[in-house]
Automatic annotation (TrEMBL), chain A:
Originating species: Undibacterium cyanobacteriorum
Protein name (database record): FtsX-like permease family protein
UniProt-listed InterPro entries: ABC-4/HrtB_transporter, ABC3_permease_C, MacB_PCD
Broad class of where this protein is predominantly found: membrane
Membrane topology field: Multi-pass membrane protein
Cited PANTHER family: ABC TRANSPORTER PERMEASE, ABC TRANSPORTER, MEMBRANE PROTEIN
A Pfam family annotated for this UniProt entry: FtsX
TrEMBL record, chain B:
Domain ABC3 transporter permease C-terminal, first and last residues per copy: 261-381
Entry keyword set: Cell membrane, Membrane, Transmembrane, Transmembrane helix
Record-given protein name: FtsX-like permease family protein
InterPro entries: ABC3_permease_C, MacB_PCD, Macrolide_Exporter_MacB
Membrane topology, as annotated: Multi-pass membrane protein
The species this protein was found in: Undibacterium cyanobacteriorum
Location within or outside the cell: Cell membrane
Domain MacB-like periplasmic core span(s) in chain numbering: 20-227
Superkingdom in the source lineage: Bacteria
Residue spans crossing the bilayer: 21-40, 257-282, 302-328, 354-372
PANTHER family in alphabetical order: ABC TRANSPORTER PERMEASE (PTHR30572:SF15), MEMBRANE COMPONENT OF TRANSPORTER-RELATED (PTHR30572)
Main location: membrane
Length: 385, 389
């Protein structure tokens, strides 16, 4: 207890400097937490996947469609317990800035495959019955203030023309990982309208979503599906929903790597600032440490003092930074809206923040402590005179 | 007013080498990140802007915005071909290329992870329309065959795209017979093959884009008006250079905003570091300050001396950061451009403007960090200073 009070007193002897250092720490730890959360948010689509869902797409790339008649053949594959499909719509709501994902889906079978989208029975029924109806996630509805019954106009970039949908339901996610920033509407409506406008066959599907009986069978069933369509006009590539989502994330890997690197650079910068503070502290107290040594305290006591002081500063500053992370993350999530479907500070992030504080505290004290443990008593005392 | 010589300022920094280096090091890191971000968005912009030729016009379906979303039927293509004002080559062919553009998901050489590569169907004329594209290995694909040529960045980055290798897609084997260099433009990230073969293989009846050259540069407005007035044509025509500049916008802006907000957060840390250092410098030299004042130096001279010290400190940090960042020019990176959804290889690019911005940024950190300590130093009373020491 005595030692702790001494450390605290020491730490605040040079109040202005200590407070400045702590401000730096608050900013660094906060930024570190925020960046880690951004990376987590990037992977949110991956976290929200189910292990009993497979995604079947055209093997050339996602931009190539699959024929509608594959649905029946997929249903007959052994181990498949449900099939649905969706098309990426790529519409623009008012201006390009309001980006959110829209999918044309086969409503009844799609909702059956996604039990995590929680809708009341009336909403579900109203959506399935209205061919121009759509449903959206809670977050998206709140972002634009939509209420059930609202008309939502979209300008198509892939499917030309203006499309208007009536909002029939708002789903809540079963847990925090569920995406609540999408919009779903009827595939039938999309394809029939396109057929009328472009006067050509549009019985094509973007991707098939397939439910399987047993997660362990995923590789086997994927293999069976792809074999089915081998050497056909549209060869397929089937993978678990997780692998499918990871494919998207890895496309922007360069940016993720950069953000990740930056989050550690912040810690290094604050280490330099802290080390600076500690080396100044040590230099100023040269005489004091020499006196302690002369009184018979061991060099290790001096070292303990320095490390202790450094850790006290790091933990107080870092702790404040951690507390600040939560409200700032909440504000950030609000500001970016639907850009990140899920934005939550995870426990791992908080643990890493604590670890970062400890590392900063220890590293910053290392060099001054090493130097102080080796000072010559006579030399040190000479400074007093 | 007599100023305190700069050599005194510089010597002070040198005396406390470790502290100086730690502070400057922190600042160098901040400036490094700041500079690299600017270089990155500049690199993306430079790559895509250079991809377009000033005298080429590019045509897309109305409102589609990107090549892969676009579709121009054969009938519309025929109308465009007959528009007045399109240049003709010496042998009488129209300088116009009808191109299907598709994305192909290929695994990367480094880790096997797939990413989208743009596959473009083109022709002899398409090559002529892009004079920056040169075959550096192998030869051009023969029209009417399943031969393709690969951009330099693709050939290096993706499996099965090297010279002599084979790719299998759309029920065919495609042999890579040549590697082309387009002088660090977006085409380096593409695969090119015969337009008609691509249309047949992918069973498409609509082209993605049409590129043509104008016989007369000034005719551009007339051609655009002609297109807008023709009810059969639902298309957007714009200079190729403008199209590619627009393609870079989202990614470059995203990187710039992300980078600048990070730099601001970082700089708080660095400013705090500078402030701590300067406060300590002032505290250590109270006696000196008193002596200088007693010798007749004015308050402002003291203020300027300490401010100069801080600015010099940040300049050292800034230059170290800039120097480190300049090495990034040797690194090639590639990422998915989410506007086109396809892979884009580019380089970090330094420009005089970036150098000026980075130096100003580091100096402003030094100024903000050093002003309060310097001001405090200049306000001290001579008597107090001399007594304290």
């Amino acid at each position: 207890m005595f030692l702790f009070r001494l450390l605290l007193k020491n730490a605040f002897r040079h109040r202005l400097r200590t407070i400045l250092t702590m401000v730096g720490l608050v900013v660094a730890i906060c930024a570190f937490g925020l960046l880690r959360t951004i990376i987590d948010a990037w992977y949110a689509g991956v976290e929200g996947t189910s292990s009993v869902r497979l995604v079947t797409r055209n093997s050339i790339s996602l931009t190539f469609p699959l024929p509608l008649n594959y649905a029946e053949r997929l249903r007959n594959v052994e181990g498949v317990t449900g099939v649905s499909w969706s098309n990426w719509f790529g519409g623009v709501y008012i201006t390009e800035r309001n980006f959110f994902p829209q999918f044309a889906v086969e409503p009844a079978s799609y909702l059956a495959l996604y039990p995590e989208y929680i809708l009341s029975d009336e909403e579900k029924k109203a959506f399935i019955l209205d061919r121009q109806g759509c449903i959206v996630g809670r977050k998206l509805a709140e972002q634009y203030g939509w209420k059930i019954g609202d008309q939502i106009p979209l300008r198509g970039t892939i499917y030309p023309g203006t499309w208007t949908f009536t909002l029939r339901g708002i789903w809540d996610g079963a847990d925090a990982k569920t995406d609540e920033s999408q919009m779903l509407f009827h595939w039938q409506y999309l394809t029939e309208t396109t057929k009328k406008r472009l006067k050509r066959s549009t019985d094509f599907v973007g991707v098939y979503i397939v439910r399987i009986n047993e997660p362990d069978n995923a590789p086997l069933i994927s293999e069976r599906i792809d074999q089915q369509f081998k050497n056909s006009l549209a060869e397929t590539l089937t993978e678990t929903e997780k692998a499918f989502q990871l494919g998207f994330v890895s496309m922007s890997e360069a940016i993720l790597v950069a953000v990740n690197a930056v989050s550690y650079v912040i810690i290094i910068i604050i280490m330099a600032v802290m080390a600076n503070t500690m080396s100044m502290t040590a230099r100023e107290r040269l005489a004091e440490y020499a006196t302690l040594k002369a009184l018979g305290f061991s060099p290790s006591f001096v070292v303990k003092l320095l490390f202790g002081e450094s850790l006290v500063i790091a933990l107080i500053g870092g702790g404040a930074g951690m507390l600040l992370t939560l409200p700032i993350a909440a504000g950030f999530a609000k500001a970016v809206g639907t850009l990140f479907p899920v934005f939550v500070v995870s426990e791992t992030t908080m643990a890493l923040q604590v670890l970062a504080c400890l590392v900063v505290g220890v590293v910053a004290a290392a060099w001054p402590a090493w130097k102080m443990s080796r000072i010559d008593i006579v030399n040190g005392l000479m400074h007093v005179a | 007013m007599k100023a305190i010589p700069l050599s005194y300022v510089a010597r002070n920094l040198w005396v406390r080498r470790v502290t100086t280096l730690l502070t400057a090091g922190g600042m160098a890191l901040v400036v490094f990140v700041f500079t690299v971000v600017l270089m990155m968005s500049e690199g993306i912009r430079a790559t895509l802007v250079a991809t377009g030729q000033a005298d080429n016009i590019l045509v897309l379906r109305k409102g589609s915005g990107a090549e892969i979303n676009s579709g121009i039927g054969r009938d519309q293509a025929a109308i465009i071909e007959s528009l007045p004002g399109i240049a003709t080559a010496r042998d009488g062919r129209v300088m116009l290329s009808k191109e299907p553009v598709v994305l192909n998901n290929l695994p990367k050489r480094s880790n096997g992870k797939p990413s989208n590569v743009t596959v473009r169907g083109t022709s002899e004329i398409g090559l002529e329309l892009r004079p920056q594209v040169k075959i550096i290995e192998g030869r051009m694909f023969r029209p009417g065959t399943s031969e393709i040529i690969a951009g330099k960045a693709v050939a290096q980055g993706f499996r099965g795209t090297g010279l002599g290798e084979t790719l299998h897609f759309a029920q065919r084997d495609w042999v890579v017979v040549g590697i082309f260099d387009s002088g660090k433009t977006g085409f380096d990230s593409e695969l090119w093959g015969d337009s008609d073969q691509m249309m047949a293989a992918f069973r498409r009846n609509a082209y993605s884009t049409i590129v043509f050259r104008l016989s007369d540069q000034s005719a551009i407005e007339a051609v655009k008006r002609g297109i807008d007035l023709d009810p059969r044509l639902q298309i957007d025509a714009k200079p190729e250079i403008q199209f590619y500049a627009e393609q870079s916008e989202a990614l470059a802006t995203f990187i710039r905003i992300l980078g600048l907000s990070l730099s601001i957060i970082f700089s708080i840390g660095a400013i705090v570091g500078a402030m701590i250092t300067m406060f300590a410098a002032v505290a250590q030299r109270v006696g000196e300050i008193g002596t200088l004042r007693a010798l007749g130096f004015r308050r402002n001279a003291i203020l300027i001396a300490f401010l100069m010290e801080s600015l010099l400190l940040s300049l050292v940090g800034g230059l170290i950061g800039l120097f480190a960042a300049s090495w990034m020019q040797t690194v090639d990176i590639s990422t998915t451009n989410f506007q086109t959804f396809s892979e884009l290889a580019f380089q970090f690019k330094m420009s005089p403007e970036i150098i000026v911005k980075s130096v100003l940024f580091s100096l402003s950190m030094g100024f903000i960090g050093g002003f309060i300590p310097a001001w405090r130093a200049s306000r001290k009373k001579i008597v107090d200073c001399l007594r304290e020491s």
